[in-house]
Design a protein that fits this description.
alpha+beta, six-stranded antiparallel β-sheet, five-stranded antiparallel β-sheet, 16 strands, 31% helix
Length: 459
């Protein structure tokens, strides 16, 4: 028994046959990439260098300043402390008390020594940064040993703004000129050293606090709390790690590549993927049927149409082109699956190919003619050889045998009918082609002996 092929399966075979090598190479490449990802991710991920902090020393230093009111006045009480101001009054609080506080933080530290040294600097500086003269006066120096983390070391001193202003005036008077701008500031050097994290570590800082004399006032500009961190790091190797996308994507690519390569290899080895001429013709017909669907209508032509001479088209495309050129329509017979175009005295017909190459004899049977199922000659429309003379000859397009050949015509029709029926039945049962699968031809429902009566009436 012949059966209609699965159209999607035929097309898949055609693609595999044409692109088998390309698909196989793609699958192998996919498997190779997946294998490389699996190996580098799960088998030998390798190592990478990272940096970690072994020890850390953070030093914080800052100035704290204030001035005590020493002269009576209408605003401040004598002995009142003015602190943290930007500007102080020279007449009532000429002395500025300054304290340099230093502390440090470390996870572990031993034998830590803190050294703080401050000096007053007075200098004259030009526009280009040229220092014309400079004088430095030590103010305070403090060294404390075995300082614990968080412990504060203080170094205090006092600045007399009146005395500083007088010293600057004396120097300028002695020099006879001041080509630049005179600056007064306090510079402090801080050094913290010891065994931090078991390793000798030293951290240094330099802070500057500026004093600007303005006659009856002096301004203080200090940098605030300064924090410096000294760290010791070391590099070490750790196993490289990857994200979930690579961890799961690698095995998936390997699996897909191997399965695809094995599948295409098995298919090309065990099956003949090349399409036969009949299968290629069938797919060509299906392509034409889909492309020209809008030009085709489905209904059954009257029996009288089939009395016309028949011209067979090589393809459905040829039939549609002919119909368009001759301004007529293409009709699909729902019973036989054949396509017809009626123009002039002819009916132009295309019969779809049997997908398996079977049922070729059925194509010789004309639409609308029943050759008789019991071996009797088909009805010739009331023709009587005794009264009407010799039987009129049939053209080749009528596809009739003579009355003497009725038995062979019956056998041929029955065989074609059975083959076509089996093909359509198999196509339907495969449930693959859907509504586009060729309908099962029903010769019994076609024009049979009753067609002869219709022809008599038409005469």
């Amino acid at each position: 028994m012949s059966s209609a092929p699965n159209e999607r399966r035929l097309r898949l075979r055609a693609v595999l046959n044409a692109q088998a090598t390309v698909i196989l190479v793609a699958c192998l490449l996919l498997a190779a990439v997946g294998g490389a990802l699996v190996y580098t991710t799960h088998v030998d991920p390798g190592t990478t260098e990272e940096t970690r902090t072994v020890s850390s020393l953070t030093v914080e230093s800052g100035y704290v300043h204030s001035a005590t009111v020493t002269e009576p006045n209408a605003v401040f009480d004598t002995g009142a402390v003015l602190d943290g101001r930007d500007t102080y009054f020279t007449r009532i609080a000429p002395e500025l008390d300054v304290n340099v506080s230093t502390s440090y933080a470390a996870s572990s530290a031993e034998n830590v020594t803190v050294e703080v040294g401050s000096a007053l600097v007075v200098r004259n500086v030009g526009e280009e940064g040229t220092v014309y003269w400079s004088e430095t006066e030590p103010l305070a120096s403090e060294t404390v040993s075995d300082v614990a983390p968080g412990e504060t070391v203080n170094a205090s001193f006092t600045l007399n703004s009146t005395a500083i202003d007088g010293r600057v005036a004396s120097i300028e008077d002695q020099l006879g000129a001041s080509p630049g701008e005179t600056e007064t500031f306090v510079t402090t050097d801080v050094a913290v050293g010891g065994a931090v994290g078991g390793v000798p570590t030293v951290s240094t800082q330099t802070l500057d606090m500026t004093l600007a004399h303005g006659g009856d006032t002096y301004a203080v500009d200090e940098p605030g709390l300064q924090s410096d961190t000294t760290t010791r790091t070391e590099r070490f190797e750790v196993e490289r790690s990857y994200g979930s996308l690579r961890s799961f994507g690698g095995p998936l690519l390997l699996l897909v590549g191997l399965v695809g390569a094995a599948g295409i290899g098995y298919a090309t080895r065990e099956y003949d993927l090349a399409l036969t001429d009949a299968e290629r013709e069938y797919l060509s017909y299906r392509d034409d049927r889909s492309e020209f669907a809008e030009w085709i209508t489905t209904f059954r032509l009257p029996p009288s149409v089939h009395e016309r001479p028949t011209a067979d088209a090589e393809s459905l495309r040829d039939l549609v082109d002919f119909a368009i050129d001759n301004d007529t329509g293409v009709v699909e017979d729902p019973q036989t699956g054949a396509f017809h175009a009626v123009s002039g005295e002819f009916v132009y017909t295309y019969r779809p190919p049997a997908p398996t190459g079977a049922g070729d004899e059925s194509e010789t049977e004309p639409d609308g003619i029943d050759a008789g199922r019991d071996g009797d000659p088909a009805d010739t429309g009331g023709f009587d050889p005794e009264t009407d003379g010799p039987a009129p000859s049939r053209t080749d397009s009528d596809d009739f045998g003579s009355p003497d050949d009725s038995a062979s015509a019956d056998d041929s029709a029955s065989a074609a009918d059975g083959s076509m029926t089996n093909w359509v039945r198999d196509a339907i049962s495969s449930d693959s082609d859907g509504p586009d699968a060729p309908a099962e031809p029903d010769r019994d429902d076609g024009p049979d002996a009753d067609a002869g009566d219709a022809r008599d009436d038409s005469r």
